[in-house]
Backbone:
C-alpha cells in the first residue's frame, strides 16, 4: 500500500535531479560564453574605479590617466595584462626621458621642438612596426608619451619635469591596479590557453599531413592551410610571451615551446616539398619517355619520406613532453622573431612624423587652444595602428566609438556626474557608459569601438580634483578629440596607403630578399632565422588578406612556399660545403650557390638558365662521387641530390611563368 508514494518520491527526485543538471549545464555554458564577457567587464570596472579612487586620494593632477591606463590594459588573460603593463611602463619611462631631453634642447623654439618630437615619434613608430608584438607597444608609448609631455610644455618649459613625474606616477598607479585585479580576481591564466593552442596545433597538423600523404588535398587547398599555419606559429609565440609573465608558468616550457614551433616549421617545409613532388609525379601523362625523371622523383620522394618521418618523430616527442608537463632537455633554437619589410617600417615612421607636423601647423594656423588634443589623438592612433594589417579599419572603429560616445558623454557629464556628491554616486553615474565600452572590448568584432568609447569617456567624463562644468569647453574638447582620430584616419588613407602591414607586393619582395639571404647570410642559426622570417611574412599576408585571400595573395603564398623550400635546400647545401674537403663535389655545389644567388639578386632568363645548368652539373659530380664514398658520406651525398632536385624544381616553378629556360633536362 505504500509503493505509490515511493514511486512518486522517486519521480520527484529524478525530476529535481534533471532540473539541477540542466541548470548546471546552462550555467556552465553561460560562463563559457556570455558570462565570461561579463566577468571581464566586472574586472575591468573594478580595476578602473579602484585606480580612480586612489588617484583622488593621492591628489594626482589627472586622475583620468590612471583610469585610462586600466582600460587600455583590459585584456582577456592575466598574462596578457602583465606583459602589456610591463612594456607600457617601460615605454612611458623612455618617452618621458625623451621629452625632457627635447625640451631641454629647444626650450624657446617651438618649431624646432615640434620637428624634434616628430623625428622621435617617427623613429619610435618605425620600431613598433618592425617588432609587431608587445615589445612594439614600448616603442609606441615612448613615441606618443614624449608628445604628451612636450606639447603642453611649449608655453611653460619649466614645468616639463613635473609633467613627466606626474605622468609616470599616474600610469604606474593604473598599471598596479590593473595587474592586481586581473591577476587575483577570477584570474584567467594564459598558460592554459597556450597549451590548448598546442593541442589544437597537433590535432590539425596530424589531420593535414595524413590528407596530404593520401593525396586527398589539391595544392591550392594545401597552400591555404600553410598560410593558416603561418598565422598559428606567430600566435603561439605571442601567447608564449604573455604566459611567461605569469607566476605559475614553468620557465622550462619557454625553451620547449620554441623547440615545438621550430620542429613544426621544419616538418611543415618537408611536407610541402614532398607534396609538390607527389602532385607533379601524379600529373605525368602515361606513355611519355620520362623514365630517368621518374627514377629521380622516386629516389627523391623516398629520401623526403624518411626525412619527414624523422621530423614527425621530433615533433611528436616535443608535443607529448609538453602535454604531459614533462621537462625535456632540448636545445633552444631561438625565439620566433618578426620580420617587417623595410619599406613598411619607413612608411610607418614617416606617416606618424608627418601627422604630428601637419596637426602642429594646423594648431599654429587656427590659433585654437584645443587643437592640442587633436595633435595627441592623431599621433597616438597613427602610432598604435602602424602595426595593424588593416590600420584604416582599426582607426575607423575607434572613430565610430568617439562619435557614439560624444552625446553619451555629454549626457553623463552634465546630467549625472554633475549631480554626484561623493565617490559612490560618481561610480553609479559613470559606470553604465564605461561598462558598455568594456563589453564591446570583450568581443573581437567591435573591440575598436569599445576602445574608442572608453578612451573618449576617460578623457572627458572623469572629473578632476578641481572640477569645472563648462559646456563650451566640453564641446570643444569633444570636437578636437574626434578631429584628431579623423586626421589619423585620413593620414592612413592619403600617405602611402599601399605601405601597410601584410601588403602583398611588399611581402613578395621581402620573400625574394630572404631567399637571397639563404645563399649569402652568416650560417649561425640561419635555417631557423630563415624559416622564422618567411613564416612571419606569410603570417602578415594572412592577416591582411582575411579569411578568403584573393588570387593575387594566393600567388604570393605559392611563391613564398616555393622560396621556403628552395632556401632550406640551399642552406643544407651550404652546410655540406662547409664540412666537405676540396674537390669536384664541393666546387660544383659552391657554383650552384653562386649562380642561384646571382639569379635571386637580378632575376632574368639568362641567370635562371645558368643556375639550372649549374644544378645539373652538380648532380653529375655528386653521382660520380657516390661509388667511392663511405657509408656516412653516401648518406650526405644522397641528401645533397635531394636538395639539388628541390632547388631545380623550385626554380622551374619560379621561371616557368614567363622566363625562357631553353632545352633543359630534368636530370638533377
Residues:
Amino acid at each position: 500500500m505504500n509503493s505509490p508514494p515511493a514511486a512518486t518520491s522517486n519521480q520527484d527526485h529524478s525530476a529535481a535531479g534533471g532540473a539541477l543538471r540542466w541548470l548546471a549545464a546552462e550555467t556552465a555554458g553561460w560562463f563559457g560564453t556570455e558570462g565570461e564577457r561579463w566577468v571581464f567587464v566586472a574586472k575591468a570596472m573594478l580595476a578602473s574605479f579602484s585606480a580612480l579612487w586612489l588617484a583622488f586620494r593621492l591628489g594626482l593632477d589627472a586622475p583620468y590617466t590612471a583610469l585610462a591606463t586600466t582600460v587600455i590594459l583590459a585584456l582577456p588573460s592575466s598574462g596578457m595584462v602583465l606583459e602589456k603593463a610591463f612594456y607600457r611602463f617601460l615605454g612611458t619611462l623612455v618617452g618621458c626621458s625623451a621629452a625632457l631631453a627635447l625640451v631641454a634642447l629647444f626650450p624657446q623654439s617651438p618649431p624646432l621642438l615640434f620637428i624634434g618630437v616628430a623625428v622621435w615619434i617617427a623613429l619610435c613608430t618605425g620600431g613598433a612596426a618592425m617588432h609587431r608584438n608587445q615589445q612594439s607597444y614600448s616603442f609606441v608609448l615612448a613615441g606618443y608619451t614624449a608628445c604628451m609631455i612636450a606639447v603642453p610644455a611649449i608655453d611653460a618649459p619649466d614645468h616639463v619635469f613635473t609633467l613627466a613625474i606626474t605622468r609616470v606616477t599616474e600610469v604606474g598607479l593604473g598599471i598596479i591596479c590593473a595587474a592586481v585585479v586581473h591577476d587575483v580576481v577570477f584570474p584567467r591564466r594564459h598558460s592554459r590557453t597556450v597549451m590548448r593552442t598546442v593541442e589544437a596545433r597537433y590535432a590539425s597538423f596530424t589531420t593535414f599531413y595524413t590528407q596530404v600523404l593520401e593525396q586527398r588535398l589539391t595544392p591550392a587547398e594545401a597552400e591555404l592551410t600553410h598560410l593558416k599555419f603561418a598565422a598559428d606559429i606567430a600566435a603561439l609565440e605571442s601567447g608564449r610571451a604573455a604566459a611567461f609573465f605569469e607566476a605559475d608558468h614553468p620557465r622550462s616550457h619557454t625553451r620547449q615551446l620554441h623547440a615545438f614551433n621550430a620542429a613544426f616549421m621544419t616538418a611543415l617545409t618537408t611536407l610541402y616539398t614532398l607534396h609538390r613532388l607527389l602532385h607533379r609525379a601524379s600529373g605525368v601523362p602515361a606513355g611519355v619517355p620520362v623514365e630517368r625523371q621518374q627514377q629521380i622523383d622516386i629516389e627523391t620522394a623516398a629520401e623526403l619520406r624518411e626525412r619527414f618521418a624523422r621530423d614527425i618523430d621530433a615533433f611528436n616527442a616535443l608535443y607529448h613532453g609538453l602535454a604531459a608537463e614533462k621537462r625535456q632537455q632540448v636545445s633552444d633554437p631561438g625565439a620566433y622573431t618578426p620580420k617587417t619589410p623595410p619599406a613598411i617600417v619607413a612608411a610607418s615612421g614617416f606617416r606618424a612624423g608627418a601627422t604630428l607636423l601637419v596637426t602642429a601647423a594646423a594648431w599654429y594656423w587656427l590659433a585654437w587652444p584645443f587643437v592640442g588634443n587633436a595633435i595627441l589623438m592623431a599621433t597616438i592612433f597613427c602610432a598604435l595602428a602602424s602595426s595593424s594589417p588593416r590600420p584604416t579599419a582599426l582607426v575607423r572603429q575607434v572613430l565610430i566609438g568617439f562619435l557614439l560616445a560624444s552625446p553619451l558623454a555629454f549626457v553623463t557629464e552634465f546630467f549625472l556626474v554633475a549631480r554626484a556628491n561623493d565617490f559612490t554616486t560618481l561610480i553609479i553615474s559613470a559606470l553604465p557608459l564605461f561598462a558598455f565600452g568594456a563589453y564591446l572590448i570583450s568581443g573581437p568584432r567591435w573591440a575598436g569601438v569599445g576602445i574608442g568609447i572608453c578612451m573618449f569617456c576617460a578623457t572627458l567624463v572623469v572629473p578632476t580634483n578641481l572640477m569645472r562644468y563648462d559646456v563650451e569647453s566640453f564641446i570643444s574638447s569633444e570636437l578636437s578629440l574626434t578631429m584628431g582620430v579623423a586626421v589619423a584616419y585620413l593620414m592612413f588613407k592619403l600617405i602611402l596607403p599601399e605601405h601597410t602591414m601584410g601588403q602583398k607586393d611588399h611581402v613578395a619582395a621581402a620573400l625574394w630578399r630572404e631567399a637571397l639571404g639563404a645563399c649569402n647570410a652568416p650560417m649561425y642559426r640561419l635555417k631557423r632565422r630563415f624559416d622564422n622570417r618567411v613564416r612571419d611574412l606569410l603570417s602578415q599576408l594572412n592577416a591582411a588578406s582575411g579569411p578568403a585571400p584573393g588570387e593575387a595573395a594566393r600567388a604570393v603564398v605559392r611563391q613564398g612556399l616555393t622560396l621556403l623550400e628552395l632556401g632550406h635546400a640551399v642552406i643544407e647545401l651550404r652546410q655540406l660545403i662547409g664540412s666537405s674537403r676540396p674537390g669536384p663535389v664541393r666546387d660544383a655545389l659552391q657554383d650552384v650557390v653562386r649562380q642561384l644567388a646571382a639569379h635571386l639578386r637580378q632575376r632574368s632568363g639568362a641567370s635562371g638558365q645558368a643556375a639550372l645548368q649549374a644544378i645539373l652539373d652538380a648532380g653529375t659530380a655528386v653521382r660520380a662521387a657516390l661509388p667511392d664514398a663511405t657509408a656516412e658520406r653516401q648518406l650526405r651525398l644522397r641528401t645533397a641530390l635531394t636538395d639539388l632536385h628541390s632547388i631545380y624544381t623550385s626554380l622551374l616553378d619560379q621561371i616557368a611563368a614567363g622566363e625562357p629556360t631553353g632545352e633543359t633536362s630534368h636530370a638533377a
